[in-house]
């Protein structure tokens, strides 16, 4: 789960990371009022959306009067901000007004759960402000990576080494390592999966301040940390994923045209691979979990078909706790109640597979029953490309 910048800054401040003074506003008048309240001579007005890259998208404005502040807020509120990370745009319903920092240098600092190395890794760079993918691609030597041993934690000497590595002078090593370790405590205590401060600013006065902040949390651990669940903002989430989550289904939205109804994350991954191997692109995948009733399968169809890009559906079930006959009945129910207009390919295996296949093949419905996963993938890719001119067909490109 992602949260807004202002929420991440509130958390960081609580753990001892210095952040600029600021206030939230949902109207231009309130934004101007906030700048008066904060005082000073310059402010930044920042769109609160769950996306980075706001600066280059016009979502961050430096202002020198309260009229400027009101105008900047008015230009953002109620609009959708389109960023590199959110091409469909995200609704701006709040802006955050902050005292502007006088920036001498911008550093990059992040803590993340690195799934490849199965460790928490601290990443830092002397070149902040730009995104880290860009940094890693253009100047990999400028990026410091420090793994954290979970049993030992993030140690003082490691924090000092990072401060040295990003080129901080002697007088700033201690305050910087305090900030790094405070950020780590926030990350660890709240079960975060990502904490990014970009930029961590050095001001003209030599102070260190978190000018931007981003945090994401492990959904499965949110129940442990009081107050974190309340930070959720459904207006910023993928509506397709929200619909599924509201029904207790786990759904992942992708960019292709094949909808996938599967049980289990491992089978989902294998299915994605097989579809790609057959030259197709998944639009999404939905995990129905174990012991799924026909109604649950119907709900899964509804969620998958909500995505207008879906041109064919693949049902791939390896039934252990599940029952193929129930899944098959669910598919029939979907045809009866969910207005299925796209080709459906089903591959069933495991518990009650004979009954399941019989139900599908005797249904009189246009369902392609496949024997193997490879077979199913080829069929569904062919079905999704059918009925459109060849020039238009998906040929297995990458993420858009
Ligand atoms: P992002 O583009 O979504 O990552 O938003 P940021 O909060 O990182 O802001 C983008 C850029 O705006 C930063 O890299 C800074 O260069 C600039 N910026 C942000 N806050 C301030 C500020 O207080 N003062 C000044 N002068 N520039 C700022
Ligand atoms: Mn930033």
Could you walk me through the main structural features you see in this protein, from its secondary elements to its overall organization?
The chain has 400 residues and is α+β, with helices and mostly antiparallel strands. It has 3 domains: 79 residues, ATP-grasp fold, A domain (Dna Ligase, domain 1), CATH 3.30.1490; 127 residues, D-amino Acid Aminotransferase, Chain A, domain 1 (2-Layer Sandwich), CATH 3.30.470.20; 154 residues, Succinyl-CoA synthetase domains (Rossmann fold, 3-Layer(aba) Sandwich). It has 12 helices and 18 strands. Strands 7, 8, 9, 10, 11 and 12 form a 6-stranded antiparallel β-sheet that branches. Helix 8 packs across helix 12. The chain is elongated and about 75 Å long. The two termini are 23 Å apart. The C terminus is likely disordered. The site of guanosine-5'-diphosphate (GDP) has 17 residues, from strand 2, strand 3, strand 7 and strand 10. One of its GO terms (molecular function) is succinate-CoA ligase (GDP-forming) activity. This is Succinate--CoA ligase [ADP-forming] subunit beta. Its cofactor is Mg(2+).
């Amino acid at each position: 789960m992602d949260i807004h910048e202002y929420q991440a800054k509130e958390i960081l401040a609580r753990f001892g990371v210095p952040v600029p003074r600021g206030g939230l506003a949902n109207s231009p008048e309130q934004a101007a009022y906030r700048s008066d309240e904060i005082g000073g001579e310059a402010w930044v007005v920042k769109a609160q959306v769950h996306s980075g890259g706001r600066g280059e998208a016009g979502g961050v404005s430096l202002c020198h009067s309260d009229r400027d502040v009101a105008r900047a807020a008015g230009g953002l509120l109620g609009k959708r901000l389109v960023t590199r990370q959110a091409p469909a745009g995200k609704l701006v319903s709040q802006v955050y007004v902050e005292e502007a920092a006088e920036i001498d240098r911008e550093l990059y600092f992040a803590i993340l759960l690195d799934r490849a190395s199965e460790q928490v890794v601290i990443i830092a760079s002397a070149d902040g402000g730009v995104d880290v993918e860009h940094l890693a691609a253009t100047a990999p030597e400028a990026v410091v990576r420090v793994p954290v041993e979970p049993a030992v934690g993030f140690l003082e000497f490691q924090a000092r080494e990072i401060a040295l590595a990003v080129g901080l002078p002697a007088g700033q090593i201690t305050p910087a390592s305090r900030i790094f370790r405070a950020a780590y405590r926030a990350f660890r205590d709240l079960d975060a999966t990502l904490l990014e401060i970009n930029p961590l600013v050095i001001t003209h006065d030599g102070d260190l301040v978190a000018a931007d902040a981003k945090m994401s949390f492990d959904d499965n651990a949110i129940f442990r940390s009081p107050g974190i669940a309340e930070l959720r903002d459904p207006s910023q989430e993928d509506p397709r994923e929200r619909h599924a989550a509201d029904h207790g289904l786990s759904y992942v939205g992708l960019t292709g045209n094949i909808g996938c109804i599967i049980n289990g994350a491992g089978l989902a991954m294998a299915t994605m691979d097989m579809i790609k191997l057959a030259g197709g692109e998944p639009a999404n995948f939905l995990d129905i979990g174990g012991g799924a009733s026909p109604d649950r399968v119907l709900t899964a169809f509804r969620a998958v078909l909500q995505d207008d890009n879906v041109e064919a559906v693949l049902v791939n079930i390896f039934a252990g706790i599940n029952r193929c006959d129930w899944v098959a009945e669910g598919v029939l129910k979907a045809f009866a109640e969910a207005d299925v207009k796209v080709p459906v390919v089903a591959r069933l295996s495991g518990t009650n597979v004979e009954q399941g296949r019989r139900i599908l093949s005797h249904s009189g419905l246009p369902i392609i029953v496949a024997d193997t996963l490879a077979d199913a993938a080829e069929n569904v890719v062919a079905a999704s490309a059918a009925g459109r001119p060849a020039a238009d067909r998906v040929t297995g490109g990458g993420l858009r």
